[in-house]
Specification:
Radius of gyration: 24 Å
Number of domains: 2
Number of helices: 7
Largest sheet: 5 strands, parallel
Number of strands: 5
Strand order of the largest sheet: 1-2-3-4-5
Length: about 260
């Protein structure tokens, strides 16, 4: 371990942080599949690796003021992530932050693929870079193939899900277009003070997420949704007395979550 340069530690730390963040983010959205975690983790790695390496280079070559500024910037970024995590609009904040990283990582991924493709072209179809070892060419081809297959698999999987029909929604207006197919409804972090009456239109609803709102009680009519298996109410100002009423409102097999 003593022979590893600081850049090597930063490299492995970024990879571990990226894939861990991708896993927990997708797990919260119930989409923690291997392909999704690989794509999101790879995009986050490419998005974070360059600023991390640049920061390390500036830190090693700069004076004390530059080093303090670099540490302050990274601490500020960490503080933003912690603030988003503790915010009542945690889902919105994480979505904005992750989508920003994915956009940057996606652009860098395209650039990487273009660079590898150009290298393969120079090595195999021109007389330039004849001194490049053949194993590097096959390695580039391998990574290009993996990236293309991963992206193709994602597109095919998305097309299959669209064909089968969407059953998870986080926007009430979108869900109301086809209420009979709605199984999962996520209304968390939307500053709701009461349960929208339109929720009763989803007769096949099995999971309802109302967490991180300002709801202090549930309407009795909600018990008419006989397929409800899980109700998330964490992060709402619900009194102990009201919690007791809510538990009696639903069958014992219905999972009611008051705390995250």
């Amino acid at each position: 371990m003593s022979t590893i340069a600081p850049a090597g530690y930063v490299f492995f730390l970024v990879i571990a942080l990226s894939f861990t963040t991708a896993y927990f983010w997708l797990a919260a959205k119930k989409k923690a599949r291997v392909l999704f975690v690989f794509l999101a983790g790879s995009a986050l790695t490419f998005a974070l690796l360059m600023p991390a390496m640049i920061s390390l280079q500036l830190f090693e070559a700069g004076n004390q003021i530059i080093r303090i500024a670099i540490v302050a910037c990274w601490l500020f970024l960490i503080a933003i992530v912690i603030a988003i995590q503790r915010s009542k609009k945690v889902n919105l904040g994480w979505s904005i932050l992750i989508n920003l990283f994915l956009m940057i990582g996606g652009l860098m991924l395209v650039g990487l693929m273009a660079g590898m493709g150009y290298f393969v072209y120079l090595r195999l179809f021109t007389h330039e870079r004849d001194d490049a070892p053949m194993w590097s060419v096959f390695l580039c081809i391998f990574f290009l193939g993996v990236l293309i297959l991963a992206i193709a698999g994602q597109l095919l999987n998305s097309g299959k899900r669209n064909k089968e029909g969407k059953t998870e929604f986080n926007k009430l207006k979108e869900a109301l277009l086809m209420p009979e197919i709605v199984l999962w409804l996520d209304l968390s972090g939307q500053n709701l003070t009461s349960v929208p009456a339109d929720v009763l239109k989803f007769s096949n609803l099995t999971n309802l997420d109302l967490s991180n709102n300002q709801i202090n009680q549930l309407p009795n009519d909600l018990a008419r949704l006989t397929h409800l298996a899980t109700i998330k109410l964490s992060g709402n100002p619900i009194s102990d007395q009201e919690r007791s009423i809510i538990r009696k409102m639903f069958p014992p097999e219905t999972q009611i979550i008051f705390r995250s």
